[in-house]
Request: fold
Amino acid sequence: MGEAGSRFRPAQPDGKASVGGRECLSGEVLLARSLLSGTAADLAPLLSEVADAIGVPVEGVVSDGQRSIRHAVAAALPGVAHQLCQFHFLREAANPVYEADRHAKKELKKQVRGVRPIERASEGRNDTEAEVVRGYCAAVRSAITDDGRAPLVAPGLKHKARLEAVADSLDRVEAKGGSRRRRLRACDD
Reply:
């Protein structure tokens, strides 16, 4: 808690059974209670109790933005700044980007669905070319399987970068005298 005041972070009701709060700078638990519900009417007296107990003015409240918490803060701590927790804010702000990325990832996966027939065509062969084809097929499969967690990772962009790396490698093979088309055609036969 600083000299000028404190920032309070309510712990979120867990299944509407418990609620608590921490001082943001120190992490000290200021309050922990079991409640039958997490309504604004239930939370406001707890916020007032904490504000009275800490001995310094509350300058702000950070929460997940849950409606009952917003209403309780407005009722118990009028004029105190209330902001959305950074993680929740980023998640909400990134949602349109996440949805666009999810759509792009789905479209990328559609474009590489043909890898299984190419893999099957090289089964039963032990020559170098078949091993290379199977290696590239495995690279394509692994490039599209790992997902990240929004808002911090965009899986569609990650998949695109990985597939581009596989395509660049195939281009280098082709530039050295190999033929991607010939190889793929041989697998289709």
